[in-house]
Amino acid sequence: MTTNPIYLDAAASMPINPRVSEAMIECLSSDEFIGNPSSANFLGQKAMQAIDLARQQLADLVGTKASNIIWTSGATESNNLAIIGAARFRSNRGRHLITMKTEHKAVSGAFDYLEKEGFEVTRLIPDETGLLHIDDLTAAIKSETQLVSIMHVNNETGVVQNINEIGKLCRELDVLFHTDAAQSVGKLPLNLERLPVDLLSVSAHKMYGPQGIGALYIRKAAGCGVIPLFHGGEQEKWMRPGTLPVHQIVGFGLAAEIATSSMKSDIKLMHKLYQRMWNGIKNNSGIVVNGSTESYFPGILNVSLPGIDGDSLMLMLEPICVARGSACNSKFHEASHVLKSLGLSDHLAQSAIRFSFNRNTQFNEIDFAIKKYNKAVKFLRKILPDGL
Amino acid sequence: MNDKTGTSQIHGYNELTQKLFTRAEYCDSKDYFEGELIELRMGDIGLGHLLQLKCFIKGQTISTIRYRVFGCPHFMALVEYFCEEIEGSLINDIAKTDLHEMQIKLAIPTEKTALILLLEDVIDEIRLQCV
Question: Domain boundary residue among A235, A257, A279?
């Protein structure tokens, strides 16, 4: 590792809040929390009290009742439980499901799996800004449709879908609506008492909490439910068996409480960081922002440049930690499925770099990143073959 | 992270690749060199790599070689390494260039063997044009 890394990859994982890690260490080291929260004895119940508090903290953040929240190992599990669980729950009514091509692999993979079980899946394509047109969704819904899953904030582009509009349509047509909100909970205001969302996935480490813990919101209503993926215990109302990790849940709860109080100032800061970054690099000829510049979360800035190889650019940006458009960089020149769904050519999608910010990001770090980015682009363009 | 040779890696690129990919000593700065000029353009931007080469030939020797390139760090480093190896070589000797050794030294993964094959084509093309 090179010296002094600058972390601009917050959409992949946020730095844990020091208050959160302290609370977790306290929980791990205290004799008060050694019990199994499923145990009826005093120490078990003490652990369960800490879990109940965390559940309330998360419920307060998203505007719902604590009883609507179940703990999972992270957003990937939440998405799988929501999508596979709900599709199976409603399979006697119909076997048609709808999602988008720009979803995270934790969602698209669950739909791929369901297709093998015989479900029919429609994958909607967004417009060139990454936004879903409600008319496209309306046209795709048929009498057999049971579930629509559209993510709230896209992890690669930061594009924010209108989940209120999507949810309203689904509710009118008696279709369940799930949203992967891993990138929005704790960052954008959400009130599930008002929003027409039936299932919502959350991740702790995308909101300054620990890795390895997530949650799923399940609305209490007739026809809304999931069939569990795991079996063998009564935890989380039989929906997610397994001993609950008290320290992680305590950390998640505190991260939610902190997010509730700091969200407004966080959003202001994200806008400032985004603008500073964009203003610093926008003069590179041909640079484009990938995704909507109208409906977006300012913690994510994804840009492409013609004539630039993303791998080379990323290596030249060291020690700045950024991400390629695609999370999968293990294969040679595999372009992001999200960016290709927006209509980008392979070549332009290959050049994409995602900068993502968090509340610890400093302006001088942005300035350093701008300098490195511009210098790298200048070099890589200088050595290009003629005509590129 | 260390590779099999014990050197430090970033994003899967070993130290030699990191050193060579931006060194650009053999990069074409449009300078004029004496000798018979052979120009090559190989690769495909759609496949992620494109190479433009200028070889200046004096007698039976590649007196100067310069490149321009688009591609990943492995490709950029490989081209820089390749040019260093063959500049000053006799045309008849360039077929002996050990591209496999370069692949090992740069820790180029097998899924990128297409880059090595491209340089094999470059060698063949230079020899062909010098006949």
Answer: A257
Q: What is the pTM of this model?
A: 0.92
Residues 6+ apart with CB under 8 A from A139: none
Residue B47 near chain A (CB below 8 Å): yes
Q: How many CB atoms lie within 10 A of CB A281?
A: 20
Token pair in block for residue B106: 């740069």
**A9 - beta bridge partners?**
A356
Give the span between the Cα atoms of A111 and A263, in whole angstroms.
Answer: 32
- The Cα A247–Cα A73 span in angstroms is 13
Total domains in the fold of chain A: 2
Give per-residue pLDDT as tens, A174-229. 999 999 999 999 999 999 999 999 999 999 999 999 999 999 999 999 999 999 99
Q: Which of A3, A4, A19, A7 is nearest to A251 (CA)?
A: A19
Please report how many Cα atoms fall inside a 13 Å half-sphere around the Cα of residue A305, on the Cβ side: 24
A155 vs A337: CA distance, rounded Å: 12
Is B71 within 8 Å of chain A by CB? yes
Please report, for the domain that includes residue A55, its CATH number: 3.40.640.10
Residues A187 and A308 in one domain: no
What is the domain range of residue A303?
6-13+263-382
Q: Which of B11, B51, B112 sits opposite A315 (nearest CB)?
A: B11
Question: Please, what are the domains in chain B?
Answer: 15-130 (3.90.1010.10)
Q: Does some domain include residue A1? A: no
The rounded distance, in Å, linking the Cα atoms of A126 and A110 is 20
Based on the fold, state whether residues A172 and A87 are members of the same structural domain.
yes
Contacts of B73 in chain A (CB under 8 A): 311-312, 315
Query: By mean pLDDT, which of A43-57, A106-120, B28-42, B74-88 is the weakest?
Result: B28-42
Cβ pair A384:B70 closer than 8 A: yes
Closest residue in A to B69 (Cα–Cα) = A384
A326 burial via Cβ count (<10 Å: 0-12, 13-18, 19+) = buried
From A323's Cα to the closest Cα of chain B, the distance in A is 11
pLDDT under 50 in chain A at which residues?
A: 1-2, 326-332
Last residue of a domain, one of A223, A257, A291: A257
| A332 closest CA partner among B36, B63, B71 | B71
Pull the structure tokens for residue A248.
């992680």
This model of the complex carries an ipTM of 0.90
